[in-house]
Design goal:
single chain; elongated; two-stranded antiparallel sheet; 3-stranded antiparallel beta sheet; 5 strands; about 270 residues; mainly alpha; 7 helices
C-alpha cells in the first residue's frame, strides 16, 4: 500500500450509496439543531405535577415558595431557548404569584360552612383532575394498538387449489329424505283469509230500519248467524251508539234475561 502522506477528506454523509465530501454552500444549520431536552412537558400543569412528585410534596399542602422558584427556573430556560412555548407557562406563573400573594394576606373569603377557603385549593383540584386524566391516558396507551402492537397478516393464496368436499350419501337415504319432505308438504295447507269490513254506521241504519216495522225487537233477532262474532260485536256497538244518541231504548226484565230494543218515540 502506497502512503502518499495525504489524508482522505472526511465524509459528511452517504446518500444513495454516494459519499458527500463537501457541504452545500447554502446549507443552513440552526444553532440549536443538536440540542437535546431530556425532560419534556405537555403543559404548565404537567410541569407543576412533575415538580411536586420530584420533591415528594403532598399535593394538598403545596409549599408555594419552593414550587414557584422551581417553576420560574424553567420559565427562564424557556424564555432563552423557546420563547414561543413560554406563553402558557407565563400564565401559570402569574397564577402562582397570585396564590403566593393571597397566602400572605389575611383570609377573607369563607365557604358556606364558615371555613376559610385555601387559595391553593383551586390549583389542587386542577392538578388532581389532570393527574387522573394523565393516568387514564397511560392506561389507554398500554392497550394493544393496531399497526403498533398488532399487525394484520395477509397471505396470497392464489396458488392454493380449493377442494370441494362432498359427503358420501347413499341413494336409499335420498329416497327416505324425499318421502319425509312429501309427507311434511301434505300437512301444509295454504289458505288466504279475507277480512270483511263491517261499519257501525251502516248497522245503526239497519237497526233503525228494522224498528220502523216492529217497535220492540229482541236483540237476538238483529244478529245474523252468518256474520259470526264480528257481526255480534258490530250490532252491539250500533245499539249502544243509538242508545247514547237517545234514538232507541234498551229494556231487560231480569238479570241474564234477553234484552229488547225499541224506538224512542219522543225523538
Amino acid at each position: 500500500m502506497i502512503n502518499t502522506g495525504m489524508e482522505a477528506p472526511p465524509i459528511h454523509a452517504i446518500v444513495a450509496g454516494k459519499p458527500f465530501l463537501d457541504l452545500p454552500k447554502d446549507l443552513f444549520i440552526p444553532p440549536d439543531a443538536l440540542e437535546v431536552l431530556l425532560d419534556s412537558f405537555s403543559g404548565p400543569l404537567d410541569l407543576l405535577l412533575y415538580l411536586i412528585r420530584q420533591h415528594n410534596i403532598d399535593i394538598l399542602d403545596i409549599p408555594m415558595t419552593l414550587i414557584t422558584e422551581q417553576y420560574m427556573h424553567y420559565i427562564n430556560f424557556l424564555e432563552s431557548h423557546r420563547l414561543e412555548l413560554a406563553a402558557d407557562y407565563l400564565v401559570m406563573a402569574a397564577l402562582l404569584a397570585e396564590i403566593k400573594s393571597r397566602m400572605l394576606l389575611p383570609a377573607q373569603e369563607k365557604t358556606e360552612e364558615g371555613i376559610e377557603e385555601d387559595p391553593r385549593m383551586e390549583l389542587v383540584r386542577r392538578l388532581q383532575a389532570y393527574e387522573e386524566i394523565k393516568h387514564a391516558s397511560l392506561l389507554l396507551d398500554y392497550l394493544p394498538r393496531m399497526e403498533r402492537d398488532v399487525f394484520l397478516v395477509k397471505i396470497q393464496a392464489s396458488n392454493i387449489a380449493l377442494q370441494k368436499m362432498h359427503q358420501d350419501v347413499a341413494l336409499s337415504s335420498l329416497v327416505d329424505v324425499m318421502q319425509r319432505l312429501l309427507l311434511r308438504q301434505q300437512n301444509t295447507i295454504h289458505h288466504q283469509i279475507s277480512r270483511e269490513v263491517m261499519s257501525v254506521r251502516e248497522r245503526m241504519t239497519s237497526v233503525l230500519q228494522a224498528l220502523k216495522h216492529d217497535k220492540l225487537i229482541e236483540f237476538t233477532q238483529l244478529i245474523k248467524p252468518c256474520e259470526g262474532r264480528p257481526g255480534l260485536i258490530v250490532t252491539m256497538l250500533a245499539i249502544l251508539e243509538l242508545a247514547r244518541l237517545s234514538l232507541v231504548i234498551i229494556t231487560q226484565t231480569s238479570a241474564f234475561a234477553a234484552f229488547h230494543v225499541q224506538a224512542n218515540d219522543d225523538e
